[in-house]
Amino acid sequence: MHRPSDPAEHAAARVDRLPALSDFVTAAEWEKDVISASAAVHAATPHRILRDDSDGLVVLGHEALRHLSQDPAVGNTPLEFLEARAAERARRRGAAEPQDEQPTPFARFLHNQVFTHNPPVHTASRRLVGQPLLPRPAGSMRDAAGRAAAELLVSLAGAEDVDLVRDFASPFVCYFWAEQLGMPVEVADQLPEVMDAMNAMFLFDPGAEDVARLRAATARYVDLVSESIDASDVATPVLDHLRAHLSTTEGLRDPVTVGRFVASNYFDGFHTAGVAVASTLRQLLDSPTSLRLVRDDPGLAGAAFQESTRLATPVMVSTRLTLAEVELGGLRIPPQTPLAMVWAAGNRDPDVFADPHVFDLHRGAGLASTFGGGAHLCPGRNIARVLAEAAVTAFVDPSLEVVPRGRSGGWIPGSAMRVLTTLPVSVRVRDA
User: What domain of life does the UniProt record list for this protein's source (predicted)?
Assistant: First the structure.
């Protein structure tokens, strides 16, 4: 392992003098697999910040990611910026849409997402989303998560064809959130299929069929979640908080119901948490030694989640925008510069991590950049850990035997998310 360096130690003083990502990997290599492409760049150059093929920068280094994520002048990407970039990509493909088209379901889905907000709105909307997910309230949901994981896994025992992605990870988090949000079980039953279709959201170069699938799935998802919540008078801690504070939160784009706000801002709970659970189980199955350690000590479930999300960072790339000039180790980054924050690359930066591509339960806490940092630190990080720990604890329960059935289906290619496609196993109850 190399000594962690200043994040811009090798950087030129001017952005336009930085080398380009395309100097080291092709666009096709990058879009096919961000993790392997990032490893190739790390091996080829000491630079950890590179130019992209337009007007932005690609941030690959752990230290640079850490500094930039905590800089208040580095903000979220506003909805207008995302829409303009999407329109430009469509124009380049010859698929530009009519200018007078009404906002798509996907655009409406993004309208009140905290991940498109910047100050002063960001502080209030983030508080609204995040307070029910702080460590203490997240911890109070631990028993519910454990019960949901154990009951679902036991229900799969004896089935001929169990896919831990399709049959366990995604349904588990959807059932959990349905309980926390007062949603009927029949709604939760439909959500895993919708989550699978919404993976198209993260494709680097979606085709027309992908866009159509995403639009349909987004509309269905928002309707399922918002209508079931808004029609319910069930009281839960999360809903009570949102009902009490939504109407007094200033700066939200449109009048919005609790259900529509939940659909926009708890999407990662339904989707990304399931992605993280599946990849954690995959990493354990791929590392029999680590799996034995966790079976012997289920208290290592949290370490398994932490190391898995370092190796298979669920959100591999997200875009930030400089709100003012940012200086990083002598490099001056102009305002309105898009930053591709490659969390997956930072989590495997050889300047920081020894044997960065190896699953190591004893690596220790505090380094991985999985959840970002600063004012934009992921508000769902605590509950994601609770869910993953519950899933792993159920997975290593001595009363069950979970055995792989061939190789997993691999990761969705061409995506900014590390999404496992299938994980086939057999599950049986051990004889008493």
Answer: Bacteria
